Structure formats: structure tokens, C-alpha cells
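Query structure, 259 C-alpha cells:
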């Protein structure tokens, strides 16, 4: 599988933000947040990093993890708090310092998606968890992307739409074990509210299908290393600041207080 060459995220960011502000983009984001909250409800630790194509969105507000950070291509007035400035292909973090990493559509628009997964695996502690959200090629959205060459010049259709099988292969190579995969948002990819409301029968048919054919796929994986030491429960560990590789990173805002 070859990937389409993507501009830098800074170049794509205005168009991506504009798309997520549409009704279709908002509906998709709500469905993704619901599944992310479901996955995060059983994950604990000290440090979480969210890497998203839209740095205005915090998808981890429900997390029980004490300190949540967001990687930003650049800081703007709309960026979420606790923002680390850096490149998702080369994370400005030391190795094995995070308990959870959330990759939100970043593989769809990365110049080298495999390198992004490799970096996420590097900064995860043994026993840490990776959550990957991306557009699903085996869906109505993937079908639209395949059939319309004109649409593929715009976001989100110009994205990579990584297959589940390819992601599984990458995870296995990086000693990450897939624990579960979900699929969500079964609505048709119509920008018109009227056409989406008329496609209810099609949505019901897709939803009842046993295959994972929602608009997006979400995968939960764990970093497993042979002979690794079990992780000490979060309540038994002392509060510690996130180790950052200087001078390529800087934080803005205050860290999340322990609930």
C-alpha cells in the first residue's frame, strides 16, 4: 500500500479545522469522543499525550490520568491548554515516559505514518497504551474517497485512510499488542443535512453489518516487552513532572490537577 504525499500539518491545519467545524465534522467528532471516553475509562497512569490533527480539540477530558498534554504544530489562541510544541514525526520527549498516547487522525495526514507510530511506541512505558483513531477505508467514506478523484484533492478525503490490517502489522513490529478495535459513525458522508437525514435506511443497514465499516476505526494497543516489570499502580507512585527533551519542547498552561 502506497501513501499519498501530504503537506506539512501546519499547511493542512486551517482546512482541517474548517472541515471539523462543519456539521458532518462535528457529528464525526462526537462519535469519536464517545468511543475514546469508553477506552480511557479503564486506563490509568501519570502522563497522557494527545496528538491530533486539530489542536483545538481535547478528546481526553474524561481521562483519569493526572497529567494530559497535547502536541501542537504551533501555539495559537485556539490551542488547548498544556500544549507541547513539536513534530509528530520526532516527538520532543524522552523514551518510555508516557502511560497513554492518543493518535487522532494524525496517521491520515502524516508524511510518514509509520514513523509516527514508531515514535508513539518509543515514548510509551512498558505496559503503556496506544489509542489510534483514523478514517476507515472499508466504509461508505472510503468508498466515496475511492470513487471521486475530485474529492481526493480536499480534506478529509486526501488522507491516507490506513487499513486495519496495515496498522496491525505496524503494531506487531513495534511490540504493541492490539487489545481491541472499534468502528463508529455509520452515517453517509453527505455534507448536506438534508441528504444525511434521507440516508437513514442506509445508515441502519451499515450499522447492523457484522463488519467494522463505520467512518472511523479506533484501535487500542498495549506495549508489551518480554520480561517487563509490572507497572506500579498510579496511587502508589509519587507525583512527577513529565521529562522533556530540551530545547525543542515547551509547555503552555497548567497541568491537569489530580481528581
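Result returned for the query:
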Amino acid at each position: 500500500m502506497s501513501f499519498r504525499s501530504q503537506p506539512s500539518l501546519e499547511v493542512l491545519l486551517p482546512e482541517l479545522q474548517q472541515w471539523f467545524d462543519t456539521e458532518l465534522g462535528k457529528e464525526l467528532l462526537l462519535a469519536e469522543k464517545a468511543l475514546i471516553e469508553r477506552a480511557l475509562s479503564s486506563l490509568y497512569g501519570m502522563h497522557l499525550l494527545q496528538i491530533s490533527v486539530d489542536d483545538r480539540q481535547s478528546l481526553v477530558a474524561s481521562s483519569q490520568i493526572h497529567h494530559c498534554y497535547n502536541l501542537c504544530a504551533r501555539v495559537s489562541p485556539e490551542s488547548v491548554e498544556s500544549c507541547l510544541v513539536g513534530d509528530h514525526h520526532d516527538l520532543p520527549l524522552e523514551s518510555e515516559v508516557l502511560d497513554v498516547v492518543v493518535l487522532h487522525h494524525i496517521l491520515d495526514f502524516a508524511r510518514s505514518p509509520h514513523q509516527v507510530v514508531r515514535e508513539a511506541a518509543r515514548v510509551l512505558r512498558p505496559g503503556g497504551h496506544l489509542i489510534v483513531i483514523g478514517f476507515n477505508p472499508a466504509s461508505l467514506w472510503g468508498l466515496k474517497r475511492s470513487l471521486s478523484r475530485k474529492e481526493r484533492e480536499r480534506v478529509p478525503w486526501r488522507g491516507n485512510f490506513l487499513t486495519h490490517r496495515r496498522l496491525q502489522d505496524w503494531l506487531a513490529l513495534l511490540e504493541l499488542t492490539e487489545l481491541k478495535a472499534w468502528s463508529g459513525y455509520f452515517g453517509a458522508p453527505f455534507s448536506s443535512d438534508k441528504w444525511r437525514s434521507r440516508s437513514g435506511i442506509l445508515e441502519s443497514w451499515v450499522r447492523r453489518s457484522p463488519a467494522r465499516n463505520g467512518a472511523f476505526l479506533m484501535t487500542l494497543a498495549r506495549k508489551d516487552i518480554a520480561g517487563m516489570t509490572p507497572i506500579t499502580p498510579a496511587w502508589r507512585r509519587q507525583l512527577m513532572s513529565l521529562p522533556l527533551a530540551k530545547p525543542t519542547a515547551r509547555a503552555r498552561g497548567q497541568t491537569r490537577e489530580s481528581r
